[in-house]
Specification:
With 434 residues, the protein is mainly alpha-helical. It has helices at residues 2-13, 16-30, 34-50, 56-62, 67-92, 98-111, 113-116, 127-156, 159-190, 195-220, 240-249, 251-281, 286-314, 316-333, 340-368, 374-432. The longest helix has 59 residues, at 374-432. The chain is globular, with a radius of gyration of 21 Å.
Length: 434
């Protein structure tokens, strides 16, 4: 009876009408504040990304991509970010105006989208690899700008406001993502009559994404960030060697870092395996990828308030563990999905768990990093995350080649359960022996 009562309580918490009413009240209260500009920046960021990124896999498939290209599509961005993040973070410490530097890197990243417009007119034999390489290179400015943005979140918002800002940005973003994705998917699926017309539509959406990216930069510049006086940057007072020595001795940071990296590896290993199943087994088209995004986005939007309340009530570790176990269940269910319709249903479940884990990871890393030299801490963390992102798809591809997709996904499921258990164990010991 208690279990049934709890389910009813959860259903009330994630009610759609209540979620919309909360959204309206939140918008009225936050208008003109830093949270407001952060939400609008996030909406433009999500719009620019979802005009083309959800369709990267079917686009690669139409270019003639193989399973190896899909693996590289997941792995190369991590390699690029792993190479540039730490040097880039150290470079950022010397910019007197980090806000302008971050905006410049965002603009460079969006500008590289225009290069994708040229791919369909090139010789067919180089298209798949060039597309994969370009997506990897785009992660150079993107990784630096996003790491710098994470650092801003630690300084622009205090501990109480930060969780609210992250949750609100995620909640509003999840409202726009499915709308953009489904419109794009419908247009790409039903408007063109030939493959040439479909490629032309992809090119048009690349150009639109760049234009929205320009607006994104303008909104980012409206964030009110306290800058150091001209010629003075307090981030440069500490030498780089001393920062890394402090990282190695920072027990609070390391208690979050090692379990989180282990979990991230198990999470990333599932991505190419999901893609193999969707593209090769289910034969999903652009429209179905849009429907997957719609289902996931609606679920994430509805459940945003639920995760936010649970975060305040039970803390970040509890959210991490619950969402981690749900992601493990996703990996176990995927190989038994027989068609695209069932995949759309599972996407509802995936969206619910994804927003929970994203909230827990971002809030957790900001809690674990000190305000001083936070940029370098975050760069170190994101560098290792991206090394994991590079290695995990090849690990998954090896499992796929050895035992097939079903067994590979079940192994990933088991690893996700173990990594979630490690998170619980580390935090249990940390609180028992502070």
């Amino acid at each position: 009876m208690r279990f049934i009562a709890r389910l009813r309580h959860m259903r009330r918490e994630i009610n759609l009408r209540e979620g919309i009413a909360h959204m309206r009240r939140d918008m009225a209260r936050m208008r003109g504040t830093n949270i407001w500009f952060f939400i609008l920046y996030g909406l433009l960021f999500d719009t620019a990304a979802n005009l083309w990124r959800p369709f990267a896999l079917p686009f690669l498939n139409r270019l003639g991509g193989t399973e190896f290209h899909i693996t590289l599509l997941n792995a190369l961005p991590g390699l690029v970010a792993a190479i540039v993040l730490l040097p880039g973070a150290l470079l950022f410490r010397h910019f007197a105006n980090q806000k302008k530097a971050t905006a410049a890197f965002i603009l460079i990243s969006r500008g590289l989208i225009l290069v994708l417009v040229l791919i369909p007119v090139l010789p067919p034999y180089i298209r798949p690899m060039l597309f994969v390489v370009m997506l990897g290179l785009m992660n150079f400015p993107d990784a630096l700008s996003q790491t710098s943005l994470q650092s801003f979140l630690g300084s622009v918002f205090n501990g109480n406001t930060r969780g609210q800002a992250i949750a609100a940005r995620t909640k509003f973003g999840q409202a726009i993502i499915p709308v953009v994705s489904i419109i794009t998917g419908l247009v790409i699926t039903f408007v063109p009559r030939t493959e040439e017309q479909r490629m032309l539509l992809y090119q048009i959406f690349f150009v639109i994404a760049f234009s929205v990216g320009v607006l994104e930069v303008r909104m980012f510049n409206r964030l009110k960030v306290a800058e150091a006086p001209p010629g003075e940057n307090p981030l440069c007072k500490t030498k780089s060697r001393e920062i890394f020595r402090a990282i190695r001795k920072d027990k609070r940071f390391l208690a979050f870092f090692f379990p989180a990296i282990f979990f991230m590896f198990t999470w990333q290993a599932g991505w190419p395996l999901f893609a193999f199943h969707q593209v090769r087994v289910l034969q999903a088209t652009e429209l179905w990828f849009a429907i997957f995004a719609l289902a996931s986005g609606v679920s994430a939007f509805i459940s945003g308030g639920f995760w936010q309340r649970w975060l305040r009530k039970y803390g970040n570790t509890a959210i991490f563990i619950i969402a981690g176990l749900l992601l493990a269940a996703n990996a176990a269910l995927i190989p038994f999905i027989p068609n695209v319709q069932m995949m759309a249903v599972l996407s509802l479940f995936m969206g619910f768990s994804a927003i929970g884990i994203n909230t827990a990871i971002l809030n957790g890393v900001l809690e674990a990093t000190p305000e001083e030299n936070r940029m370098v801490y975050l760069a170190f963390y994101n560098t290792v995350v991206n090394v994991s992102l590079f290695v995990a798809p090849f690990f998954a591809h090896t499992l796929y080649r050895m035992w097939g997709n079903m067994m590979a996904l079940l192994i990933v499921c088991a690893l996700r359960v173990v990594s979630t258990g490690v998170i619980w164990l580390v935090n249990y010991k940390r609180h028992k022996n502070p």
